[in-house]
Amino acid sequence: MPKMLVVNYDKCTGCRLCELVCSVKHEGVSNPSRARIHITKWEMEGIMMPMVCNQCEPAPCIDACPTNARSWDEHLGRVVIDYDRCIECKTCVAVCPFGAVSFDHVAGRIISCDLCDGDPACVNFCETEAIQYVDASEINKRRQREAAEKLYESMRKFTMAPAG
Amino acid sequence: MALNRKIAYINLTKGKIEVKSIPIKLRKLFLGSRGLDMYLMYNHIEPGTDPLGADNVALISAGILVGTLASASARTHIGGKSPLTGFVGSTNMGGFFAPEMRWAGFDHLVIKGKAEKPVYLWVHNGEIEIRDALNIWGKDVHETQEIIREELGDRDIKILTIGLAGEKLVRYANVMTELKNAGGRSGMGALLGSKNLKAIAVRGTMDIKIEHPDEALEYNKRLISQVTSAKVSQEQGKLGTTFIWGATNSQGLVRVRNFQLNQLEEADDIEPEALEEFSLGMAGCFGCQVHCRGKYIIPSGPYTGVYDEGPEYTSMGAWAAEPGCRNPLTILVCNHLVNSYGLDTLETGSMIAWAMELYEKGILTNKDTDGLELRFGNDEAVIEMVHRIARRQGLGDILAEGPLRAAEKIGKDSAQYLIHVKGMSNLHSDERPTPSLALGIATSSRGSDHLRSRPAIDLYHLPEPILRKIYSQPVAYDGPLTSNFTDYEGKPWQVIWQELCFEAVDCLGICKYHTLFLGPNFPNFDEWSKLLYYNTGLELSPLDIWNIADRAYTMERLFNIREGLTRNDDWLVDRYFDEPTKLGIPIVRGKVIDRDKFRQMIDEYYELHGWDENGVPRPETLRKLGIDQEPSHML
Lengths: 164, 635
Known about the structure:
- The complex is a heterodimer of chains A (164) and B (635).
- Chain A has helices spanning 17-27, 60-64, 91-95, 121-125, 139-160; strands at residues 3-7, 29-30, 37-42, 47-52, 70-73, 78-81, 102-104, 109-111, 131-135.
- By secondary structure, chain A is α+β, with helices and mostly antiparallel strands.
- Chain A has a two-stranded antiparallel ribbon with strand order 1-9. In chain A, strands 3-4 form a two-stranded antiparallel ribbon.
- In chain A, a hairpin with a 4-residue loop joins strand 3 and strand 4 (47-52).
- The radius of gyration of chain A is 19 Å and the shape is globular.
- Chain A starts with a strand and ends with a helix.
- With 635 residues, chain B is α+β, with helices and mostly antiparallel strands.
- Chain B has 3 domains: 6-203, Aldehyde Ferredoxin Oxidoreductase,  A, domain 1; 230-417, Aldehyde Ferredoxin Oxidoreductase Protein, subunit A, domain 2 (Orthogonal Bundle); 435-625, Aldehyde Ferredoxin Oxidoreductase Protein, subunit A, domain 3, CATH 1.10.599.10.
- In chain B, 39% of the residues lie in helices and 13% in strands.
- Chain B contains 24 helices and 18 strands.
- Chain B has a 6-stranded mixed beta sheet, with helices on both faces. Chain B has a 6-stranded mixed beta sheet with strand order 8-7-12-9-10-11.
- The longest helix of chain B has 21 residues, at 542-562.
- Chain B is globular.
- The interface between A and B is large, with 32 and 41 residues.
- Strand 2 of chain A pairs antiparallel with strand 13 of chain B.
């Protein structure tokens, strides 16, 4: 089963190191506008949300691509792009419901998360584990456990509450 | 590359903007940010300039490693002649402004003159516009940023701004970015206010080329582990800098009731662990994995539901220990108020605590306070005074002038209760048991300060061989070093070492919590040499970086001397020498600073710096550092 990126919004401190390492690893430069991940912030409320390609399946960007430049990579569970076929029409940018596909204004090409070919830099550098690279089949188990823990806490409070 | 960022000269009187390149020669002499700002300050500010007049110059800069793979390289420096002290004005803040300024193409902004009406600057991808700020003049720090983002239509714009305090020329007004990132100390907010400059908005999408990307990625990963594996970083990442206050209060190393005591007893309700109850988690500055910025929502009272960040160490002193309060809510509220007014939390808290002691002693009466009972422990009075200072109302108008001017206005014996150096209030710590820290605040170039030099690891009782290893590089040192923080021997060298360590990271744009400030295994000159090479291609040895820091710090000294600084200004107030500490663990109790020994420390400090007995850099020192021909007007 391929792995996928999972974002835990509560753990994000908004430092944007993921944006930095993404642009350095892919383009050799520091430039968040060329990164494939972006922290969307509501600064005055302290809310930070890492936004990155969800590697949808079926993916609107693949369906919409008029030249079949975008396709599904079964091995890594990701959307890939064939730059020889891409005509930079930006349809994929327009149809992505998460804004995760973008046009790199310097290199003049479409970019989206490629999972760093199975070794995502953003994950490697995120000390708080706000973004993790995990087996897709395990995600719901973990969420299940977290939800169960919350339920357990409330049940415990209820059962231990003094009678009357 | 990381070295091609520009310098812009903005004349607000004429509305003229000129952009230039920064010569590599100056990079090698001063690196950037604080270092280059000090060069610019000495070259562009005439001696005797009125700090609040149009001739003062505001310098805004980003460190040379900002935005690169140097962990915690997020720092903005703001410089100019200080409206508070009349000496070097200099401040440094984290957040996201500096990297954005570099992505917008600039490392340095030199702001001259005075706008006819309120303006803000819009800096984006190599362009700078002067824009009307009438609609934001009078708005608080947080509102201002939201209005500008709305006006320019981009949520990712980063903004540096002043609040009401800066507009009202409170002499210790801050420059702020985001919620609580504060360019505090020395009144740089008043400097911007005096120029009618409300804010600077930046946004950029220009590459900063990383010279050796693979090595830079790998090395950054190593440095992050080095820093985050330290217990002190982990505590900070959980509790923020309040944990330092908790630790030092338990020993009796904090300042209470305007220096009358050195420990806040019965402080359970405001211990860092107790404050954790209000925490919503932590936030980080650009690229930093320590994430020491606490997030909270005020839980009750008139400010219920207000979100802010902090409080930091200094706010613990300012809103609890110094005014003798023990209410967490007061800390959270005052922290929010100083953030939104753009006031220096340390100076504001100090001025209020000083006024409280004057009230206690009968020097200030209800007539002076307009009926406000300014007694220690009166939380409501503390909160009210923050408003009055920011708005310059009543007694607040006098306190807004800072220690020396306020004492002159109040008269009587008020000056003898001030706790300051060079007209800037001391940190809310007690340095009587720690001569090294006392020397640090006494000699600091921007007035009493813990972020110019603080050999805090002196408190750790490290074995002498470890101290020797740390303090014998990158330059040899074979003088004394001792593990006992109450000693006077060997401490001047530690102060100089830490001074140049802080100067170096301020040039690089790296946070001081990523240096040997807090722990013996933290990065220092060796690491910075490698970071510079991997990220920018600049080949500078650890010793080269040390020399750059020495050169920059000496420029600060030259500036101060040109403004009339003498040896007498490197001195502590009498209470340090005459009143013994009353509380704390045995080793800190009953301590004063010994006048003669302290004088000898200063002699030794000057000598090690290559300065004469009056603290003036010797001609051969200036020649050795290559600054014997200043001002040289190369930029």
